[in-house]
């Protein structure tokens, strides 16, 4: 299959592969790209309270978590905050421009916010230090360094890995002065209550599902769908931004595959965390 055909008629080029149940990069339709994760001081950002670098094929995403102290909101006196932000800078792909976040970056940020909320991965009550007085704010910056499709899976994975690595100092409020006192020598890990994992599919010609699409595959697809599941095989959310409709049977197929993927990702995170724990 010539490169010329790929440039002139990319969809026809792809269809020839799909008929043979494979893809131009050699993967089967249900096969993920090589996935790696680096966490903490091996992962990247020394100034962050937790960080991780995730690679999904060529797609590379880094997540840094910064914890700051703030007063809780009046209507949520016993809760802290989690503020996610996904950045797709011009350096990661020619499809993005410098300047304010574009539509895709905004949609990705909203997706991550929904994953945090729907999965209840962190109970916001756990971030409260003193009711009505003091709470933690976790700023989660997810930056794409190299964009080759499936930004949602990579971002959700990087966020989870970075949060698993966060250590918060112990904070008390001095009764006499009313001021907060931070003990940097005593640190505690965040309580991660659920481990949501995203699994994305591209839909070709309204019927064919391929997992972990590249940027080229996303461009040629007639739709995409992202399934988020947790440790108990529970469905946290289905993200389907328009495009081809899915039958109930196809959706169920996606959910089954997402549950299998969840186990693989969780195993990978556990393995990396175990390897960096002090002996």
TrEMBL record:
Could you name the Gene Ontology cellular component terms for this entry?
Answer: cytoplasmic exosome (RNase complex); nuclear exosome (RNase complex); nucleolus
- List, in alphabetical order, the GO biological process terms annotated in this UniProt record: exonucleolytic trimming to generate mature 3'-end of 5.8S rRNA from tricistronic rRNA transcript (SSU-rRNA, 5.8S rRNA, LSU-rRNA); nuclear mRNA surveillance; nuclear polyadenylation-dependent rRNA catabolic process; rRNA catabolic process; TRAMP-dependent tRNA surveillance pathway; U1 snRNA 3'-end processing; U4 snRNA 3'-end processing; U5 snRNA 3'-end processing
Domain of life from the UniProt record: Eukaryota
Q: Which UniProt keywords apply?
A: Acetylation, Cytoplasm, Exosome, Nucleus, RNA-binding, rRNA processing
Residue ranges constituting the Exoribonuclease phosphorolytic domain according to the UniProt record: 31-169, 196-259
| Entry keyword annotation includes Acetylation | yes
- State its location(s): Cytoplasm; Nucleus, Nucleolus
Q: Which residues form a coiled coil?
A: none
Q: Which GO terms describe its molecular function?
A: mRNA 3'-UTR AU-rich region binding
In which broad location class does this protein mainly occur, judging by the first location in its UniProt entry? cytoplasm
**Family, as annotated:** Belongs to the RNase PH family.
Q: Which PANTHER family match?
A: EXOSOME COMPLEX COMPONENT RRP43 (PTHR11097:SF9), EXOSOME COMPLEX EXONUCLEASE RIBOSOMAL RNA PROCESSING PROTEIN (PTHR11097)
The molecule here is called: Exosome complex component RRP43
